[in-house]
Amino acid sequence: MYCQNCGSKIDEDVKFCPKCGEEIYHKQESAFSQDSIRSDEDSNTELSPFKSWISKIGPKKAVIVIAVIVVIAVAGVILRSIGGIIGESSITSYQKASDLEILATMVQGENGYFMVKNTGNQVITDFTLTVAGFDASGNVIDLTGSTVYQSFDFATTNILPDTVFGLKNYVYLRQDVKYMEAMVSSITYKDGSVWSTKGLDAWTKDVSDDFSVEEYRHSIDAMKSNAILAESNEYLKITGSSKYSDNQFSNDDDFDFSAENIGDRDIQKFDIIVMEYDANGYGISVSPYEFVMQNCRVVSADPANLMANCEATYNKSLFFESECKTYNTLVYEIEFKDGTKWTNEYAFQWMLYNKDKR
Prior knowledge:
Blueprint: H1 34-43, H2 49-57, H3 59-92, E1 100-108, E2 111-118, E3 124-134, E4 140-141, E5 149-159, E6 164-172, E7 179-189, E8 194-196, H4 200-210, H5 213-221, H6 224-230, E9 236-244, E10 252-261, E11 267-277, E12 296-301, E13 311-319, E14 326-336, E15 341-343, H7 347-354
Antiparallel strand pairs: 1-2, 2-6, 3-4, 3-5, 3-7, 7-8, 9-10, 10-13, 11-12, 11-14, 14-15
């Protein structure tokens, strides 16, 4: 070995350099030797348990053990967070359609009626409507034997952007279903692309928890603003109507109505709704002909051939109930000569709000 001071070669067992007299430090006597650590332990009986543990296993092993403990703790926190997210998503992980909006729903008999509107910019060729049903007390009903929801597919619908679909369409329900909630669960677009949601069980749980018969009835009462909106549009205005009977051998009455094209597009044909009332203002039940309200009829001016800014009168043979004393009309649907259509998106609300004129 060599002297740490002068570099002279010396024997292994000397304590002082024979050339410069410097004290020689050997490895086993260094401040970091095991003998030094043990002597410190013997001289300091108040050493902390943590320091004693380090001194027993060594600094390197201590660092490794501590690192492993930290990794396990962090992994536990992450797993608990992921578990919380998964648990929460199992309850709320469903997405509503962004461009097919449900405007209204209604149950009548064994049929559930609805109206949807294409609020996007693509033509919709197919969509699936998922329904949850409730009894008269507002309790959710098992619709299929295994789930409390049921899905119905409406193919070849070709719903153009900004167009309403439904009202004359319906889904089959159990007899004890008195109310329904619905959501659009899948959409197929004309370009072939498909959108679909997940978590229908989660959606059903949400609507089951939130559904209230009282709130539903209040929502009907609150339809007045939309019912008023239904009575005007920018295309067609009913300027007058009258009914009279001139044939004693027929149950049909003559029904005249006049309409004015207040827009700038020629109208090929149009439909109007006629709602009947008795002397007390109650809506009269009539055959709905697959229409949503039992006290409504649909009258079609087909062909109408109504040019822009023109007015015309149409005569139709229409059966009115004998107790009908008054009636109300609403423009429901218009087909223009260019092939496009307009449907009154508030017709549903108008019928519900106006079914009783007391």
